[in-house]
Amino acid sequence: MLKDSLPEIKTPLPGPKADAILKRRMEAVPNAIKSVYPCVIKRGEGAMLEDVDGNRFLDWVGGVGVLNIGYSRPELIEAVKEQSEQYFHAMMNIVTHEGYISLVEKMNEIVPLKAETKKTMFANSGAEAIENAVKIARSYSGRPNIIVFSGAFHGRTLLAASMTAKKSYAAGIGPFPDGIYRAEFPYLYRGPKGYGEEMAIEYYVERLHKVFEEASPAEYVAAIVVEPVQGEGGFIPAPLEWVKALRKICDEYGILLIADEVQTGFARSGRLFVSHYWKEAGCPPDILVSAKSIAGGLPLSAVTAAKEVFDGVRGGVIGGTFGGNALACASALKTIEIIEKEDLCTRALKIAEKCRKEFESWKKEFEEVGDVRGIGCMMGIEFVKDKESKIPNGTLVSAIVAHCVQKGLIVESAGSGSNVIRFLCPLVVTDEQLDSGLSILKSAIEACR
Fold it and tell me: In the UniProt record, does the keyword Transferase occur (predicted)?
């Protein structure tokens, strides 16, 4: 079966069938929607995909964090098929469908927030959910401003793009919405020279206070929005002590703390959400945004917040045609059931333990491996020219990505310098597949450095 197979390349890439389809893509699809991988998927199972030419690839990207439970789960197919035979769609603003209610109840049960009584709404994508979270925070608080961070990625819609740090994602599409202010994220690997972790965190907290002094007074801030692990920014985890400081600041000034768990959620971190770690440390968020792996590949996203926050939102401000689509809700309920039944949180920690041990050995072996970081199975390897200068080595990473795919491993870069290899492998990967992927990646580093 494909889900138990190993990477196997049978034709030069792209193969003849893939090449023909990719040429059609070039003619029909906007060039701005880029792809760097010379393959065209035919089918996928588990952590593996097969292209139209019969080549088999181990997928360490997983739809950029969408496929935590893997490709083509029979349980999901059956759940969606069963729902499709009743109805595809019922708009919640018009007529209630029970699947939406059941999924809301489940989300309210599993999402860790400061408040114990919660409500949830659904949208279609991470960017949509972030925009709704901002609207909710502003409507509830009556305040206009939002604070985001350096390195942040929150989406490509107009508001989300203005919240996103990397402006190549937003070049030429302004003017942008106002009321968005940026503080410095605690990127400890590139923190102030000579600072230990404790001093560095104090520095970054002070930088946040500077935003209150120089950009927006705290009493005008509706919410602070933060990724527990920055994704596009380079797989940089938010230090727990810094999150505690954020929580204290938010409580002091009446600001809502929003956790963007679009990429970190649904067992990726070794818990259902990174915010579970936050809650155990006494610093849970007020609002949590999730998407990607929520429905195993169908478009769905969620905003979960305190009941009093949602009840403070004016009617008509939130909602939408396809948010909480019946097929997506059926798939999400089954996805969460699989995560819990198969204890994929524990599996994530076991995979992470094995990979981190290997990655750390590469850090000792290769001058170009500057940092290894992450939480659970959301890990990044940062490549540099050398450990002393820490100059980003995006050229090397590009070569590694291209080399890996030719050997049957799909990996992707991240970071402002495109110098980080991200690890987002489906949590159902077999041990043998994991070993194969680690071997291919190490060989790529050796060949390309």
Answer: yes
Q: Give the 3-state secondary structure of residue 292.
A: helix
- 3-class DSSP state of 220: helix
3-state SS, residue 427: coil
Domains of the chain: 2-59+344-448 (3.90.1150.10), 78-341 (3.40.640.10)
Q: 304 forms bridges with which residues in the sheet?
A: 120, 288
What is the model's pLDDT at position 194? 87
Burial profile 238-269: b = 16 or more Cβ within 10 angstroms, e = fewer: bbbbbbbbbbebbeeeebbbbbbbbbbbbbbb
Q: Which residue has the tokens 């979270």?
A: 133
In Å, how far are 17, 159, 199, 217 from 146, measured between CA atoms?
48, 11, 26, 11
In this predicted structure, what is the pLDDT of residue 227? 98
Structure tokens at 366: 């290769």
Query: What average pLDDT does the segment 180-203 reach?
Result: 95
Q: What pLDDT sits at residue 418?
A: 94
Nearest to 36 by CA among 298, 403, 434, 433: 403
Q: What is the pLDDT of residues 288-329, one digit of tens each?
A: 999 999 999 999 999 999 999 999 998 888 989 999 999 999
pTM: 0.96
Joined together, the tokens standing for residue 323 give 């948010």
What pLDDT score does 93 carry?
86
Alpha helices in 62-143 (DSSP H): 62-65, 74-84, 98-110, 126-141
Distance CA 207, CA 211 (A): 7
Task: Lay out the sheet containing 301-306: strands in order across.
Answer: 118-123, 301-306, 287-290, 256-261, 221-226, 145-149, 180-183
Tokens coding 56: 């088999």
Please tell me the distance from the alpha carbon of residue 266 to that of residue 440, in angstroms, as a whole number: 27
Nearest to 372 by CA among 234, 266, 193: 234
Q: Is 373 helix (H, G, I), strand (E, B) or coil?
A: strand
Q: Tokens in use for 122?
A: 């659904």
pLDDT in tens, 26-67: 999 999 898 879 999 999 999 999 999 999 999 999 999 999
DSSP string across 221-287: EEEEEE-SEETTTTSEEPPHHHHHHHHHHHHHHTPEEEEEETTTTTTTTSSS-HHHHHHHTT---SE
